[in-house]
């Protein structure tokens, strides 16, 4: 079993987060991230729950990623991209 896909996910995660709209400046207007945030807020009474997928992805997009977080976000982003 090759580890290449996992390594690729870690390397690609920051770019995928940015492309989805999870940026260091916040969620980009009109992006996939904005749609996810809108849906999460609508289903949660107007706010985005701490620890939710949207919150975790935005935190990763804003703060950068450790190797472990990069692997986890890379795996998660592969399902929403």
Write the layout of secondary structure elements.
Blueprint: H1 4-20, E1 22-23, E2 26-27, H2 32-43, H3 53-63, H4 67-80
Antiparallel strand pairs: 1-2
Helix pairs in contact: 1-4
Please explain how this structure is put together:
It is a single chain. With 81 residues, the protein is mostly helical. It has one domain (4-80). It contains 4 helices and 2 strands. Strands 1-2 form a two-stranded antiparallel sheet. The longest helix is centred in the first third of the chain and has 17 residues, at 4-20. The model has no long low-confidence stretch (mean pLDDT 78). InterPro entries: IFI6/IFI27-like, IFI6/IFI27-like_sf. It is found in: Membrane. This is Interferon alpha inducible protein 45. Keywords: Membrane, Signal, Transmembrane, Transmembrane helix.
Give a quick set of tags describing it:
transmembrane; membrane; mainly alpha; two-stranded antiparallel sheet; 5% strand; 81 residues; 4 helices; signal
Query: Given the C-alpha coordinates, what overall shape results?
Result: globular
How do the helices and strands follow one another from N- to C-terminus? HEEHHH
Number of helices: 4
Biggest β-sheet: strands ordered side by side in the sheet: 1-2
The helix content, as a percent range, equals 55-70%
Number of strands: 2
Which class of secondary structure composition applies to the elements? Answer: mainly alpha
The main sheet comes to: 2 strands, antiparallel
Alpha-carbon Rg, integer: 13 Å
Q: Alpha-carbon distance between the termini? A: 24 Å
How many domains? Answer: 1
Low-confidence stretches: none
Integer average pLDDT: 78
Strand content: under 5%
């Amino acid at each position: 079993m090759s580890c290449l896909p996992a390594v690729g996910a870690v390397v690609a995660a920051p770019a995928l987060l940015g492309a989805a709209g999870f940026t260091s400046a916040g969620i980009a207007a009109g992006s996939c991230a904005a749609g996810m945030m809108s849906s999460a807020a609508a289903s949660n009474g107007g706010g985005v729950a701490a620890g939710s997928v949207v919150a975790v992805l935005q935190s990763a997009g804003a703060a950068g990623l450790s190797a472990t977080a990069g692997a986890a976000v890379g795996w998660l982003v592969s399902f929403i991209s």
